[in-house]
Amino acid sequence: MQRITNYINGRSAEPISGEYLDNVDPSTGQVYSQVADSDERDVEAAVESARNAFPAWSKRSAEDRCKILMRLADLVEENVERLAKAECIDNGKPLSLARSLDIPRAAKNLRFFATAMLHAKSEVHAMEGVGFNYTLRQPRGVAGIISPWNLPLYLFTWKIAPALATGNTVVGKPSEVTPMTAYLLSELCTEAELPPGVLNIVHGLGAKAGAALVKHPKVPTISFTGGTATGARIASDASPMFKKVGLELGGKNPNIIFADADLDAAMDGSLRSSFANQGQVCLCGSRMFIERSVYDDFLDRFVSKAKRLKVGDPLEEDTDQGALVSGTQLEKVTQYVALARKEGGTILCGGNPPDGLNDRCKDGYFFAPTVISQLSVDCRVNQEEIFGPVVTVTPFDSEDQVVEYANGVQYGLASSVWTGDVSRAHRVAERIQSGTVWVNCWMVRDLRVPFGGMKQSGVGREGGDEALRFYTEPKNVCIQIPGT
Ligand code: NAD
Question: What is the pTM of this model?
Answer without folding.
Answer: 0.97
